[in-house]
Amino acid sequence: MAPALPRVGRRTVEALLAANAKDLGERNLVLVHGQYAPGAPPRFTVTLNGEARRVYVRDEASVLGVVAALHEHRSAAASSDVLVVTTGVDDEQLGWDVRGRAVRRKTLTVENAEVVLQRFGATALDPRMYRERWLLEALVEAEPAEGGWQRVGGVLTRDAALRSLTAERFRLRAVHGSSGQDGQVTLDADTLLAWSRTSAGPRRFAELSATERGELKKWLAEVAGPAVPVLLSLAEAGLGHDALSLGLLGAALRDPAAQPDIVLALGGLFGQVMPRRSELSVFTDAVEGTLTRWIADARTSLDARRRVDAVLDRADELADKAGLTPGLTASRFLPSSFTAQLRRTVAEARRSAAAGEAALADLLGHALVGLRPDHVQAAETAVRVARWLSSPVPAVTGVAAAVRAHVSDWGWVDRALTVLWAGDPDGDLEIGRDLRALFEQARERRQRLDQGCALTLVAWAAHATAQHPDGCLVIENVLDTVVRPLTGQAAPLLLVLDGMSSAVAAQLGEEAELDGWREIVPRLEAGEIPARLAAVSMLPSITRVSRASLLAGTAAGGGQSAEKSGFTAFWKRRRKAAALFHKAAISGEAGHALSHDLMTTLASDAVVGVVLNTIDEALDNGRQGRGTTWSLADVTHLRELLAAARSYGRPVVLVADHGHVLERGSRSDGPTAADDGSEFARWRTGDAVREGEIAVRGPRVREGGGAVILPWREDIRYTGRRAGYHGGASLAEVTVPVLVLLPAGEETPKDWVPLPRELSTPGWWRTHITRDEPASAAVPAEAQAVPSPVRPTVPSGSAPITEGRPSARMEAALPVAESLGSTVVSSEVYAAQKEYVRKSPEANVVAAVVDALVTAGGTMSPAALAAAISATGRVRRNIEGFVTTVQRLLNVEGYPVLGFIDGGHAVKLDVPLLREQFLPKPQDDEADGETDELASRGEEKA
Question: Which of 190, 323, 309, 321 is CA-nearest to residue 252?
């Protein structure tokens, strides 16, 4: 049997023509020994010696065919056109009459090495390539149609040739993210796994010859990692598109005790490709690493999200078909395992807070946490509510204590209840059942607190006035008590958010901090802890009386005209210009978010008030933010107003006129209680007080002739159904949250102190962490520890704050051994560092920083750190600049002992690194010998 003819493609023909360009001036026939590749173009144009020449290619198997092709060309083609004939006929058979018209008067033999050399523009080939016929043939055949191979200009190495061949055979340049900064294709597991998801990539590889597939597989294993052979074997078997999904399922064999049926099920999925367990483990690790990066991209890219979902959904589908789903509940990637862990977290939280904590820790380790924030929020909220339910039941002893407790603790419960009520975002019945059970438990306790407050409200309202508020901040005193003291440096911006409850204020306060604002509160007496401010509304808690009283600074009632006149009159009496803006006067013209009048007034020295009705209108119109949450962007004009205040250097006071309760599941569109013709949702007049109601009368009651009946239960209403209601006596309605905000970095006004998130957030809400520094880590000494911020006794009637992590506690420091901070500032290394820092802080202040961070588990907000420093008697208003100075003291040789994290919203101390840099190493006894000393150092380093 005659040997197969070498295959000749267009690029080979072009190379032969370029090599024989001089002879093509006299002759226009080229005979080539070989067979023209099927599908290659029979006509094309090349440039030879600067001249465009038309080329015709014929493949002929006989002498007659060659002769006929020549005659046809001579009779029909132009004189400059070139005829190339590929054939297997020997020169002797062709005769001189044909050969004499051909270039070099003979049939040219294709030398692939020369073709490769010419097509790459190389000066020489790697000697190893001459021994690899398959590689030379593949390079000739695979040359890109557009532009050819990239020119090398020197020696073409084997690795460079294989890299170019792989990029072309696999079409890797079409794979997103496959090219590096230099434009070269990146060959790694990430790139090849992404390639496996392309429509034709794996199929193109499977169509290559067995020799080429084997050689490429071997080389790619060397340069791209040991996971590649498994991937390419799957591509050969037609399973390339499922490679990532199959890799995830390989995690089922990580357990050495995996049952035989699991092994068999996986074998069925992998088919003939089934790799050894060690090979599968490597492949699974590579797949998980790639998916981790894809999932990070999916947080900001819809295309990346679709790509991730396609892989994970397919993995779940394959697992379900093979019966592997029950054995993969611990997977960090599968959607089914996420759901299983979410179910477990909520169920365990219902059982106990500790069990819920453990299950939540597992859930938070799942890779899909960042893509499913609503699901994670439901799980975290379930655990938070379980923590709150496990704390002692607080007693309500007065209105003042109840309102303070509500804004700092119980309002966060209301926030949690809203999340629990919404249920599982996917409508999972099992999760929904457990969330509902937790909701009912927490709601029942909250209802008892509302009842207790309502009973004290009756007696308090009978005599409470602005002059004698009985320990409360009443709403008509907010301007004088909170806003007026801020006018010393820059006129404040008062933002009245109609209907903002404590739960909504908690959400907005969190986001404001992330947006570059920090909350401040008036300085309290020694031993008292800073806390978020809250006032008590007028009664009933409706806009007409509460907002008018807030803006006039005295008990009042009326609409917008009364509010404007009252606001300007209040500030006029204090010799301040003031302006109040309502809805119609806020919006600007095209291209401007805020009106010209508003921006002009903000640029002046006048006190500015703006009323924002978004929340209250959303309750009337059946909308409640975005589902269960409110953000700064949800409140129309709020973000723009904050930005304007920042630019003009104004402090901002966010305040409500009253809160609200939400509609939760009433089956009736009509009133839920006998209304006696009441026109108002949450208050009425009359004599008969029913269950869930109280009768109040006194100077604070501005409707009903000074006597009204108010419901304290949230499920009572006297009018038709809406999204939410206000006017009643529940804590969510009568508590008026007050948030005073400064741009981060601005100097804190005199007699004000920062309110760090550690103090504005209840302990049961925060995620628990483990203390970095054990108590035994302190070194013996005679001195007393530097005092840390003191948390005073919880006011009478407020909820005891039970917190589960050290960072949440700001306890009085007891006499203990010398602190780590004191040891650090006493060290020789610290003394040497001080020589390089001008005007370095006092040693006790730096020690307080170290000790506060150690106590907090290594991380604190800047505001909390400022509070820790203030306990030493030193007030640091520019805490960011102060931390930068302390960094220069502690970051020896640039090692990051202290620094900002979370975009500047937290300060982190690396305690082990601090010890390594500043504390002397224990000296080994010389008798122990050099070997023991080295071993000891090795253990210490580990």
Answer: 323
In one letter, which amino acid is 834? Answer: K
Average pLDDT over residues 603-626: 84
In degrees rounded to 5, what are phi and psi of residue 107? -80, 125
The tens digit of pLDDT for each residue in 576-606 reads 999 999 998 999 999 899 999 999 999 999 9
Query: pTM for the whole thing?
Result: 0.77
On whether the CB atoms of residues 536 and 735 are closer than 8 A, the answer is yes
Q: Could you identify the residue written with the tokens 């010998």?
A: 929
* Helix runs in 462-542, H state only: 478, 502-514
Q: Measured between alpha carbons, how far is residue 621 from residues 505, 628, 680, 716, 793 in Å?
A: 20, 15, 16, 19, 43
More confident residue, 370 or 781: 370
Question: What residues are paired with 44 via a beta bridge?
Answer: 55
* Opening angle at CA 529, ends 528 and 532, nearest 5: 125
In this model, does residue 878 exceed pLDDT 50?
A: yes
Q: Which two tokens stand for residue 298?
A: 């999916």
User: What does the alpha-carbon distance between residue 682 and residue 699 come to, in Å, rounded to a whole number?
Assistant: 19
For residue 272, count CB atoms less than 10 angstroms from its CB and return exposed for 0-12, middle for 13-18, buried for 19 or more: exposed
The torsion region of residue 518 among left (phi > 0), alpha (psi -120 to 50) and beta comes to beta
**Chain-centre distance for alpha carbon 316:** 24
Note the pLDDT tens digit of each residue in 317-358: 999 999 888 888 889 999 999 999 999 999 999 999 999 999
Cβ atoms of 505 and 629 closer than 8 Å: no
List 56's β-bridge partners, or say none. 43, 83
Query: Residue 816 is encoded by which pair of tokens?
Result: 């203990």
Of 549, 871, 868, 882, the C-alpha closest to 745 is 882
